[in-house]
Design brief:
about 110 residues, mainly alpha, two-stranded parallel ribbon, about 40% helix
Length: about 110
């Protein structure tokens, strides 16, 4: 539907971010603002669209990161992420992550 379409917040997202901002800095890292072929003007316009949408829906945050590369953080919350923790789970973590990524790509 294009970069300008956001849809409604997912159920629970507003309460979740409000809870999270009470003890953590929430940095929004929108993929739609980081395409390398976009001009600085396009990126800035998209950042403003993201900021407006977040504010209109009461989603609390501390900053919007539109830099290149993932911002440094202690934890990430991502609607398309698949966790892979071989340090904790051993080699089976790779199999689990691959299965989950496949399931996610079918949605």
């Amino acid at each position: 539907r294009g970069h300008e379409y956001f849809g409604d917040p997912i159920d629970g997202a507003v309460d979740f971010t409000r809870s999270l901002t009470s003890w953590a800095d929430v940095i929004i890292f929108p993929a739609r603002c980081c395409e390398p072929s976009d001009s600085k003007l396009e990126i800035t316009a998209r950042q403003k669209l993201v900021e407006t949408w977040l504010t209109e829906h009461g989603i609390e945050f501390h900053e919007i990161n539109i830099g290149h590369g993932k911002p440094f953080a202690d934890a990430y919350v991502d609607d398309r992420a698949v966790s892979c923790t071989p340090q904790k789970d051993g080699p089976v973590a790779f199999e689990t992550a691959a299965r989950l990524a496949m399931e996610l790509s079918k949605k």
